Amino acid sequence: MDRRQFLEAIAGFSTLVPGLALLPATEQQAFAAAVHQRAGARAALGTLSSAQDETLSCIAEILLPESDTVGARGVGVNRFIDLLLTESMLASDRDRFLSGLEEIDARSRSLYGVPLTSARREDQESLLRALDAKLPTRPPSPQEAEALEREPVTAEHGYAQLKQLVVFAYFTSEPVARGLINAPIIPGRYDGCVSA
Predict the structure, then answer these.
(1) Which of 30, 79, 110, 117 has the fewest CB within 10 Å, making it most exposed?
(2) What is the pTM of this model?
């Protein structure tokens, strides 16, 4: 992921946190860094139940597994999202997120007879691939987004929001921003037209 792709991801995420879209990208990154720091220091979850936390962590780790690089669990994606849900998101957005998480779990129960975290790994991956295939190819217009807010939450909608948060949380974590993106998120000092 290069800096441009990262900034595009931030722009998509910023609609979920009131006021964040109004900030420049560098301030959005600073916001994310502060959330990561506070999330890592918290002893307990604020919004997610332990079952919801496990479902979220399971999905995050399938999306961004540990390999020769750190995975989603390793950077605390679940804690970051829990803190956002607790402190930064509107109650209606938080409720829709939690409903979406429940709908994903309900889909797993419907297909495999067990919650997502108890399903076989290949079944978990199959379900997420099916949900991923239903992701919109472009962001919704303001009118489409407003219409979606009035519709019941589906597993597809829940997955779309969850994936956006997971990607944002992962790529704004310090180990990933420094080690994988290979470019500073916040540019360093610039001295234009300096005489020698």
Answers:
(1) 110
(2) 0.80
The three-state secondary structure class of 150 is: helix
Residue stretches of the chain with pLDDT short of 50: 1-2, 183, 185, 187, 190
- The rounded distance, in Å, linking the Cα atoms of 68 and 111 is 32
Rounded to 5, what percent of the chain is helix, strand, coil? 65, 0, 35
CB atoms within 10 A of CB 111: 14
Tokens of 92: 């209606």
pLDDT of res. 63: 93
Calpha distance 165→173 (Å, rounded):
12
- Identity of residue 141: S
Distances (CA, A) of 163 to 24, 40, 61, 93, 182: 23, 20, 11, 15, 22
Q: Which pLDDT score is estimated for 183?
A: 46
Per-domain boundaries in the chain: 3-179
Distance CA 177, CA 159 (A): 24
- Compute and round to an integer the Cα radius of gyration of the chain: 18
pLDDT of residue 150: 87
Could you tell me the two tokens for 76? 């605390």
Q: What's the rounded Cα separation, in Å, for the pair 82 and 2?
A: 27
Max CA separation in the chain (angstroms): 72
* 85 and 47 Cβ atoms separated by less than 8 Å: yes
Contacts of 145 (CB under 8 A, 6+ apart): 15
